Amino acid sequence: MGYLCPSGEGWGPLSPDRPVDFTTCFQHGALVTGLNALFLLAAAVRVRKLKGTPALPSAIVAGSAFWVKLTLAVAALFASTAEFVAVAGQFPYVCAYTISLGLQTVAVIAAVHLHYKEQFHNCIASTPLLLFWFATVLVSLMRLRTSVTLDFVDKQPALVISNTLFLVAALATLALECQPKPQALYELADDDDSIFGEDDNRCAFMSPEERANIFSALTFSWMTPLLEKGFCKPLEMQDTWELSQQYRPDIATAEFQRNWQRELRGSSPSLFRATMRTYGFSWALGGFYKLVKDLVSFLNPILLSRLIGFVSKYNTAEAEPIENGYFYALSMFVVASVQTLAFQQHWSQNQHVNCLMKISYTTAIYRKTMALSNDTRQQFNIGGIVTHMSVDSQRVADFTANFSHHLWSSPLQIILAMVLLYQTLGWTTFAGVLAMLISIPVSARLSRSMRALNKLLMGYRDQRMKIMDEVLSGIKIIKLYAWELSFVKRINEVRVKLELATIRRYGMLQAVFSFITTLLPFVVSFSTFGLYSLADNVSHGPLTPQLVFVALTLFNMLRFPLSFGPMVVPALLESMVSSRRICDFLTSGEIDFADIDRQPYDRDSPSTRTDDVLVSVKAGSFKWLSNDEPALTDINIECRREELVAVIGRVGSGKTSLVSAILGEMVKCAGSVSIRGSVAYVPQQAWIMNATLRDNILFGSRYNQDFYDRVIEACALRQDIDMLPGGDMTEIGEKGINLSGGQRARVSLARAVYARADVYILDDPLAAVDAHVGKHIFTHVLGPQGMLKSRARILVTNAVQYLNCVSSISMLREGKIVEQDTFAQAMSKQGEIFEFIHRYIDGHVSRAGSDNSNTASDTEYYEDEPITDETDGPIVPAAIAVGRSSTKQTLGRASIGSVHIPRAARGQRATQDAPDMLAVDSGRTMTTEVCRQGKVDWSIYSTYVKASGLTNSLIFALALLAASVSNVCANMWLKHWASSNDQTDVFGFFLSTKVHTVFYYLFIYGGLGLLGASMSSLQSLLLWTRCSIRASTKIHQNMLIGVLRSPMAFFDVTPLGRILNRFSSDLQRCDEMLPRSVSGMVNTMVSVISAIAVIGFSTPMMLVLMLPLAFVYRYLQQCYLSSSRELRRLDSTTRSPIFAHFQESIGGVSTIRAYSQQPRFIYENENRLEKNMRAYFTYLSLNRWLSLRLETLGNVVMLGTTLLAIVSLQYLGFGDAGLVGLAVTYALDFT
Question: pTM value?
Answer without folding.
Answer: 0.77
